[in-house]
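Lab meeting, item 3. Inverse folding demo.
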């Protein structure tokens, strides 16, 4: 498996025969496709001064789908031969028996190139990757005597997809993806704290390791992990109660992604199970708030040239000046809602049905200087980094833990705090945004989104924000 040549060549699959079989299978259906996939991935983890694990994996398979109204028949297999495809067709065609739909038209052709068809696994020799992890480990341990443990990891690979549309059109995409991460444990006496930082995207390892002004190379990842851990080492107990909260730029957009983004996916709104259902055209956020999902950003982790249904990705405005104006759609949900796909039909692998998913979800910049926003808060919380969180899509309620946060006292950033959580309701929180910074940043390329058991790479971004009167759960009242 590799970058060149037709994907079907090595499997003895005939494209014309597949076209005839697919056309026969989805006769009477609204839509359908054959989805083919090849993957190659690796993961290296260097922990406590030694290579703890080194994994390499290849995969292949296909999935066939037929759509009839709100029903979908789907069959998949890791066997890439005509016998397996014919067996899948027998299972799938049952969904459209007795159904008489109008076959959906093909999506437009993609006209953007967001990443190269390269293989990151071959980008560096295995020995060079191990040597790099050893160097990161040594550098990080030498940086500060309080560093007690270092874990450095590399993960990379590629995913080649090909889609045979119901119309007989064949489209392909070759998707590289890499990530580097450094985690540390620091300690003084009996107290220990952690810090972590990583970066990556749809390019080669070398692209991110060189000094290209993106993330500053692996030294920056190590320095940032240590900085976070040392900050937490000095942290005091977090306050609890209703506070004005300032969110930092970049990765804190994960709160936007979870608390708001999922609620703007088409399937939840078609089923009326989202807190944003039936609110199209209404004010759902403060004036000045504009949220977009943009799958067309060059080289970003969440970007795709085409989605997993063959539709080109696009920049979709979801909320404009506080008003709900759009949802993220795949083909099936868009059709049922009288809309068109926004290029957000995504699946974890050939073994999964596609569904509406985010790509890079961003709140656009405002016009306030970040220092001005901090100075406007007399007593509050400055949340710079987040860890895990939980969201209820139907109610919009969320709970998010802060991994780096500070007190704000008389408009100045004060002591770091430990154990702070933000508790609220997504739609309500959007209305509590009172100031939007001019410093919009994207995250560094670390996000993976989970939905209904499927994980896909995503990006988030936002400027500095002030939210008024947010409930903070802490470790002191």
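The presenter then showed the designed sequence:
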């Amino acid at each position: 498996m590799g970058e060149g040549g037709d994907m079907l060549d090595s499997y003895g699959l005939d494209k014309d025969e597949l076209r005839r079989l697919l056309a026969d299978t989805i006769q009477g259906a609204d839509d359908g496709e054959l989805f083919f996939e090849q993957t190659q991935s690796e993961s290296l983890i260097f922990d406590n001064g030694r290579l703890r694990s080194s994994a390499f994996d290849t995969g292949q398979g296909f999935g066939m789908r037929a759509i009839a109204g709100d029903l979908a028949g789907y069959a998949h297999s890791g066997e890439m031969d005509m016998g397996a495809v014919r067996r899948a067709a027998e299972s799938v065609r049952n969904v459209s028996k007795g159904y008489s739909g109008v076959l959906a038209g093909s999506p437009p052709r993609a006209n953007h190139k967001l990443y190269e068809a390269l293989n990151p696994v071959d980008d560096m020799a295995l020995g060079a990757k191990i040597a790099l992890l050893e160097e990161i480990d040594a550098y990080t341990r030498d940086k500060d005597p309080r560093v007690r443990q270092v874990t450095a990891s590399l993960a990379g690979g590629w995913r080649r997809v090909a889609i045979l549309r119901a119309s007989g059109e064949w489209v392909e995409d070759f998707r590289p993806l890499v990530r580097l991460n450094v985690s540390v444990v620091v300690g003084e006496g009996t107290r220990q704290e952690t810090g972590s930082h990583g970066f990556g995207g749809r390019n080669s390892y070398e692209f991110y390791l060189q000094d290209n002004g993106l993330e500053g190379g692996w030294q920056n990842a190590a320095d940032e992990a240590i900085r976070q851990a040392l900050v937490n080492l000095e942290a005091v107990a977090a306050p609890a109660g209703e506070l004005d909260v300032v969110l930092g730029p970049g990765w804190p957009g994960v709160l936007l992604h979870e608390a708001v983004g999922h609620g703007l996916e088409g399937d939840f709104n078609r089923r009326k199970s989202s807190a944003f259902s039936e609110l199209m055209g209404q004010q759902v956020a403060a004036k000045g708030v504009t949220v977009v999902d943009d799958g067309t950003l060059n080289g970003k982790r969440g970007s795709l040239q085409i989605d997993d249904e063959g539709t080109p990705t696009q920049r979709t405005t979801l909320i404009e000046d506080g008003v709900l104006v759009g949802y993220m759609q795949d083909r099936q949900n868009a059709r049922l809602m009288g809309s068109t796909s926004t290029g957000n039909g995504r699946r974890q692998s050939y073994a999964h049905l596609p569904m509406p998913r985010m790509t890079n979800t961003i709140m656009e910049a405002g016009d306030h200087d970040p220092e001005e926003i901090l100075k406007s808060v007399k007593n509050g919380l400055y949340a710079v980094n987040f860890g895990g969180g939980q969201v209820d899509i139907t109610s919009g309620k969320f709970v998010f833990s802060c991994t780096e946060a500070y007190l704000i006292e008389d408009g100045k950033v004060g002591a770091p705090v430990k154990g702070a959580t933000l508790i609220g309701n997504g739609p309500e929180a959007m209305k509590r945004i009172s100031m939007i910074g001019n410093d919009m940043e994207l995250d560094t390329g670390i996000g993976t989104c989970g939905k209904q058991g499927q994980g896909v790479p995503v990006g988030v971004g936002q400027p500095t924000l002030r939210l008024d009167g947010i409930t903070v759960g802490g470790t002191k009242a």
